[in-house]
Specification:
Helix content is 66%, strand content 1%. It is mostly helical and 328 residues long. The chain has a two-stranded antiparallel ribbon.
Length: 328
């Protein structure tokens, strides 16, 4: 599936590339913004109209540079995404191998590369920002750890820069500063003053405080956004019940590879069994990391990073589904 996808571009990729090749910098740095109908995406005769606004500036700048070199040839874009994922895995292994057995570090680090969800990230050019944000996120964790071992203003500055790049590369990374603070509190800080403990944590809070108003402002004035008003509580709980189970099952590879957006496992075994399997898997994961602060922090990170797409999906989203890209 991944190899066949390397030869093609389609769907959202078309309008993103068209914006990247535009003569205006606003289109180049915000190529994922769209107002339908637009040529190459949701033509007028479909009768569908919606508007998207995203902040993905570092990832878009990288894509623009690629477009200058590669034009509309699809294969090189996919290779860049593969390189981003490979760098993330190597950096993750370097980080974990110093704090866990090499076998454990290798198993954890190779998972993002071999998980079936990686096929969608590599296949779609519009998913490259996820890989870009992922690399910045792993680099942020590594830089945070180094800062705690060797505190300095320069080290903190590197953390803030990398974290800001991750958050502004893909919107779901907004939980990265939260994860760093919670993991920092959970794992503990070497003996230091209160200022050294809480100064970096406040810096992370500043990133969130700066990003949220920006994200809200760029959506101001939209007449056909790709979101709705918050759904009634009953609908939210129903969607949460279905989608949370679907995400857990898909994390374990329990999905139809030919149509990964469907609720394949629930349909095959029934909802009751699917819920029992999801609860069992989560309980098993909790048992495996019992007594390990690092393992518990990993589970916390999985839950935190899954929260934005899941909560958006069940509360206000119009077009999002429990897809592999959201899981990744």
């Amino acid at each position: 599936q991944m190899l066949s996808a390397l030869q093609a571009l389609g769907g959202d990729d078309i309008y993103v590339l068209a914006n990247l090749r535009s003569a205006t910098w606003s289109s180049r740095l915000f190529p994922f913004n769209v107002d339908t109908p637009v040529p190459g995406y949701m033509p007028w005769w479909t009768g569908m109209a919606f508007q998207r606004r995203f902040i993905r500036v570092p990832a878009s700048a990288l894509l623009w540079l690629e477009s200058e070199f590669f034009g509309f040839r699809s294969f090189p874009y996919h290779l860049v995404t593969v390189a981003l994922l490979a760098c993330s895995c190597l950096l993750l292994f370097t980080l974990l191998s110093k704090r866990a057995p090499v076998v454990t570090a290798a198993a954890v680090s190779v998972l993002p590369a071999i998980h079936p969800a990686a096929s969608e990230i590599v296949a779609d050019l519009c998913c490259q920002p996820i890989a870009t944000a992922g690399l910045f996120s792993v680099a942020s964790v590594a830089a945070w750890w180094r800062m705690r071992e060797r505190p300095s203003t320069r080290a903190l500055g590197i953390v803030v820069l990398l974290c800001a790049l991750a958050v502004t590369s893909y919107e779901a990374a907004i939980v990265l500063p939260v994860f760093l603070v919670l993991a920092d509190i959970w794992l503990g800080v070497p003996d230091s003053s209160k200022a050294r403990r809480w100064g970096p944590r406040l810096a992370m809070a500043c990133i969130v405080a700066a990003y949220v108003p920006w994200a809200i402002s760029i959506r101001r004035g939209l007449v056909a956004p790709d979101t709705t008003a918050v759904r009634p509580l009953g609908e939210v709980l129903l969607a949460f019940r279905f989608d949370s189970v679907a995400y857990v099952c898909k994390a374990l590879g329990l999905f139809d590879p030919t149509d990964p957006t469907t609720y394949w496992f629930q349909h095959r075994v029934g909802e009751a069994i699917a819920i029992a399997v999801a609860i069992g898997l989560l309980a098993g994961a909790g048992w495996l990391v019992r007594g390990s602060k690092l393992g518990t922090a990993g589970l916390l990170g999985f839950a935190l990073f899954l929260a934005p797409p899941l909560l958006t999906r069940v509360t206000v989203s119009v077009v999002n589904m429990p897809t592999l890209r959201q899981l990744y």
